[in-house]
Write a structure and sequence with these properties.
The protein is mostly beta strands and about 375 residues long. The protein has four helices and 25 strands. It has one domain: 6 Propeller (Neuraminidase), CATH 2.120.10.
Length: about 375
């Protein structure tokens, strides 16, 4: 009996060790000096297209927090308004999920969402629920209980789910008891399969992000403010670790001190980068200016927009789909200013659409 008990305990310990497996060592280091960026970003852009987005009263957005292209549809989430507007690829509205409330098919909070071939998953941290809606028509399907608080979620290529929770104030923590890991990987029924990046009570990040995961052909990209490193999840047990080494990087002793970071005018990743083909597209501060950059990680070349000529200028992108980078634009005056400085002019109908304060998507082909 004692031998059997020992074997059971050993099995549990081995299983736990597997679940809490550490991330692999750095695979590559990308050295980036923002002061050496040239103004040739336009050379990587093969073409620009525009999609007018249909507008109805229910589709009005405060802002765009997450954009997903999947199932031949475009899903745009506004976490402030707590709604997801879904369009076809011509910009026509298919449906809107706007279910804020306390009912069984509703959510109080919308912190994040993700989409697979069947469902739209909406995170409600207030009630610790994951609400599922049909991805083709928005009809409610079911609710699953979340075992943790999460800031963002995505669907891994192998069908499992990845979530993140990160404190961004000293002494802060989730409003429910959970293990101190920044990453949880679960199966679709929310059973935890792996935990990564353990942290202690004193750990926090100097600023939070709206979105911690981006989707690329290589997998799901994750970054946080704890470092400038990227972690690319191609499946549950396959993680690539890429170190981003800015020449003017934040010293380790200042990593949690926003005042010192601002004072030192250090470079860091403001948002989780997008990967498209051989490029990393990222937003970073340089001196007192925040700019979009394009890093060719195969050639080690860095470029940015021309500050004078807006020809093929890249607007801060929201998502990548295949070989296209997608930006959102809803301001005609800004568009007109860009055109006056060389930006690609849209058709008359697109311009009239913008004049009516209706949004468009700008699709850059790389």
């Amino acid at each position: 009996m004692k031998k059997r008990t020992f074997l059971i305990l050993l099995s549990i310990l081995l299983c736990s060790a597997c679940i809490e497996q550490k991330v692999s060592q750095v695979e590559q280091t990308w050295d980036i000096d923002l002061s050496q960026a040239d103004a040739s970003l336009r050379d990587a852009i093969k073409g620009i297209n525009f999609i007018p987005l249909e507008t109805i009263e229910e589709s009005l957005l405060f802002g765009v927090d997450k954009l997903v292209v999947k199932n031949d549809l475009i899903y745009i989430g506004d976490f402030y308004s707590k709604k997801i507007v879904v369009y076809d690829k011509t910009g026509k509205i298919k449906f809107v999920i706007n279910r804020r409330g306390e009912g069984p098919e509703e959510y109080i909070d919308m912190k994040s969402f993700a989409v697979d071939k069947q469902f739209i998953y909406i995170v409600d941290n207030h009630r610790h629920l994951l609400n599922l809606y049909n991805c083709q028509n928005g009809n409610f399907v079911e609710t699953r209980k979340l075992p943790f608080v999460t800031w963002d979620m995505e669907i891994l290529p192998d069908g499992n789910f990845i979530f993140t929770y990160i404190p961004f104030k000293e002494g802060s923590g989730p409003n429910m008891k959970q293990e101190r890991y920044k990453i949880f990987i679960t199966d679709p029924q929310l059973n935890i399969k792996k935990r990564l990046f353990e942290y202690n009570k004193k750990d926090f990040e100097f600023i939070g992000k709206m979105v911690y995961f981006t989707t690329a052909s290589q997998g799901i990209v994750f970054s946080s403010m704890a470092s400038d490193d990227l972690y690319i999840f191609s499946e549950t047990d396959s993680i690539r670790h890429i170190a981003i080494n800015f020449k003017n990087k934040i010293p380790s002793q200042y990593r949690q001190k926003l005042d010192e970071i601002d004072k030192g005018k250090y470079n860091y990743l403001i948002k989780t980068p997008l990967l498209c083909k051989d490029y990393m597209i990222f937003l970073a501060p340089d001196d007192e200016i925040v700019l979009d950059y394009l890093y060719n990680f195969k050639k080690g070349l860095l470029s940015t927009n021309d500050r004078v000529n807006a020809y093929k200028g890249l607007l801060t992108p929201q998502a990548v789909y295949q070989d296209k980078v997608i930006s959102y634009l809803d301001n005609y005056d800004y568009y007109k200013e860009l055109v006056d400085n060389g930006f690609e002019r849209a058709s008359h109908s697109i311009e009239e659409h913008l004049k009516e304060e209706k949004p468009i998507l700008v699709l850059y082909t790389f």
